[in-house]
Amino acid sequence: MSTVPEDLRYSKEHEWVRVDGDVATIGITQFAQDQLGDVVFVELPSPGARVRQFASLGVVESVKAASDVYAPVSGEVTERNVKVIESPELVNTEPYEGGWLVKVKLADRGELSTLLSAGDYRSHIGDTAPTGGD
Amino acid sequence: MTSGTLLRTPLHEEHVALGAKMVPFAGWEMPIQYRDGIVTEHRAVRTAAGIFDLSHMGEVHVRGPRAGATVDRLVSSDIAGLEVGKARYGLLCNEKGTIVDDVIVYRLEAETYLIVVNASNAAKDVAHIRRHVGGDADVEDASLDTALIAVQGPRAAVIMSSVTDLEIREATVEDLAPFGVVAARVGGARAHVARTGYTGEDGFEVFVPWDRAVGPWARLLAAGGALGLRPIGLGARDTLRLEARYSLYGNEIDETTDPIEAGLGWTCHLAKDFIGRDAIAKAKERGPDRKIVGLVVEGGVARHGHQVVHDGKAVGHVTSGTFGPTVGKNIALAYVPVALGKVGTELGVRIRERDIPVRVVRTPFYRREAP
Known about the structure:
- The structure holds 2 protein chains of 2 kinds.
- Chain A is an alpha+beta fold.
- Chain A contains 4 helices and 9 strands; from the N terminus they run βββαβββββααβα.
- Helices cover 17% and strands 33% of the residues of chain A.
- The radius of gyration of chain A is 14 Å and the shape is globular.
- The two termini of chain A are 13 Å apart.
- Chain B is of the alpha+beta class.
- Chain B is built from 8 helices and 21 strands.
- Chain B has helices spanning 12-17, 38-47, 67-74, 122-133, 156-163, 214-224, 234-243, 277-286; strands at 7-8, 21-25, 28-33, 49-53, 58-63, 87-93, 99-109, 112-117, 138-141, 146-152, 164-166, 181-186, 189-194, 203-209, 229-231, 290-297, 307-310, 313-324, 329-337, 346-351, 354-361.
- In chain B, the strands form 4 sheets. In chain B, strands 11-12-13-14-10-4-15 form a 7-stranded mixed beta sheet, sandwiched between helices. In chain B, strands 16-19-18-17-20-21 form a 6-stranded antiparallel β-barrel.
- In chain B, helix 2 crosses helix 7 (234-243) and helix 5 packs across helix 6.
- Chain B is globular, with a radius of gyration of 21 Å.
- The chains are: A alpha+beta, B alpha+beta.
- The A-B interface holds A 37-38, 40-41, 43, 59, 61, 63-66, 92 and B 32-33, 37-40, 235, 239, 300-301, 303, 322-323, 325, 330, 352.
C-alpha cells in the first residue's frame, strides 16, 4: 500500500503537484520512489527554465537505472531543491516533503484539471486499500 | 519474455516471503532486491553478511580419468596444477581468442571437476564444453539439480560454521582456505562448501541438491539474523562486484573481447595448450589497443553503453556503471584507448547528450582490509 496524500494532484507518470497560489511544487510519488529503489542522483532544471506539461523535466537516477521525471504542469522554474541534489535519498525517505524537486510558476491553471485526484491516482497504481492518512 | 516461461529457483517462495522484488534475469525469475533496497543490502555485505540465491547459475560436472587434462584444455587457467579440494577462476575461450564465458573450476575429487558458469551462458557453455570434450570425459549438466547459496561478508565464516559440519571431523569451515572446497553438511543437507565469491568480501558458496535448498537457506538466515545477515538480491550483487572490479559477462567481457584488453591476461596460462591460446598469445605480444579502466564520475551516473569522450570525440564506452555505496561515488568501468588509460587522465562520459567529466582511477574501487 502506497501513501497518496489527499491534497495533491497526480500525473499518470507518478509525479505529484502541490499548488500554493500560482506556484506548483513538484515531486515524485511514494509509489514511484518505491519502484525506482535507492535514488542516488537527481538532475533538475535551473530557475528560469521553462517546462512544458508532460515533457521531460529532469532525471532521477536510482542504483539500477535512470528515469525521466515529466513536468505535470507547464511554467517557469522558480526554485529547485538544492537539498535533494546534495542528498538524493530524500526522494526515498520524504517523497512528499523534503524530497520535492522543483517549484514552477504555473503558466496555465487549466492544466491542473487534466491531472488525477488522489483517489484516481490510487486506482491508477492499483492501490485499492484505504490509505492510513498522511 | 513473459513470466510464464521463466524458471524459478527452489528458493522462490522464500524470496517472496522476504518481500523480494522479482525480475526476469537470464531466463530466470530472480530477486533484484528485498524490502530495504540495494544500498542497505550492499552495506550489510560489507559490514556484516549477506545471503544470496545463485541457483540460476549453471553447474557442469566433468568426470573421468582424463577429466583433468580435458578441463585444462577447455579453460584458460592452470587446471592441470589444481589440487583436489581447490578452485580456480578462468575463462572459456574460442579459437579466435575471445571470451565465451568466465567460470570457476572446482576440483571436487581426483577425477571430478565442477565448472560453474553464468546463467546467461549456460546453454551455450554446455554445448561448447560437450563439443570440445567429445568422448574424452563424461559431461553432466547438473544446473537444474544444483542449488547455489552464497554467504558473503566479514561475519560469513562465523555464520557458516554454526550450521556446517565438515566431513573431516577435526576441521571447521572457518579453516577452509580461500578457493578451497570441501564436502560438508549445511543445515542438514549434503553440500559442497567453497570459499569463493563475487563481492570482494570473505565468503562461501554452498552447492546443495535442488530439492534440499530450503533447509540450509532457512538455517543460515536464522543463524545469521542476530549478526546482521540479510538476503541480498542481484542489484547489490552488481554494485558489490563492480566496487571489487570483477568482470561481468555481457558487460566487460563477451565474444568480441579478448582476455588481454579485458585485464584478464593473468587468468591465461600461456605455457599450456588451451582453446584460444595461440590467438591470445598473439594479442598479448601485439599489445592491446584498448583496456578497461576505472572511472569516477562527477555529476551523473555512467551506465553500460554510454560513450567515453576525449576532446569531443567518442573514444570508448562504459561497460558497467553505478553508484558505489561503500566508495560513496559514482563509479564505472570503461574501455578506452591504452594511451588514455593512465590513472589521473581526465575524460568525459556522454550522459543524456552532455559530456560529464570523469577521471581514470585505480581499481579495484574497493579493497577489503586484511583481516
